[in-house]
Amino acid sequence: MKSKPSSPSGKRIIHGQPSWRLASTDVEAFVTEMGGHLGPVTFDRKGRKLQPYSVAPWAEEQTDPSLPPILKALRGDFFCLPFGGNATPFGREKHPVHGET
User: Fold this and answer.
1) Residue 25 has what DSSP assignment?
2) What span, in angstroms and rounded, lies between the C-alpha atoms of 83 and 81?
3) Which pLDDT tens digit goes with each residue over 39-83?
4) Is the Cβ–Cβ distance between 13 and 52 less than 8 Å?
5) How many domains does the structure of the chain reveal?
């Protein structure tokens, strides 16, 4: 994981996003400033490091400016549904691009 030094606020740039670090002896997690995405998360299980959460493969790449910023930062365990956003309501339903928690 690429990490730049902490700022005075305690934030670091993790996979292209300003993030806060939360850690214990068994878990290290980062929460993004934008959107509150959780990831990466590393669990230390008796010396075996596990990182079960996803980080968008394009997180540090140059992306199309029309890509919503929340998708640029996409990471974590995706429990927000429905995905995709719909400009035209389906019945009375209209949802944001990232879904609702």
Assistant:
1) S
2) 5
3) 999 999 998 999 998 898 999 999 999 988 888 888 987 665 666
4) no
5) 1
Amino acid at 40: P
Domain limits at 52? 1-101
* CB-CB contact of 5 with 12 (8 Å): yes
CA 56 from centre of chain: 8
Global pTM value: 0.69
Q: Report residue 80 CA to chain centroid gap.
A: 12
Residue bearing tokens 């990232």: 98
Contact 75, 39 (CB under 8 A): yes
**Element spanning 71, H or E:** helix 69-72
pLDDT tens digit sequence for 19-38: 999 999 999 999 999 989 99
- Whose tokens are 């010396």? That residue is 47
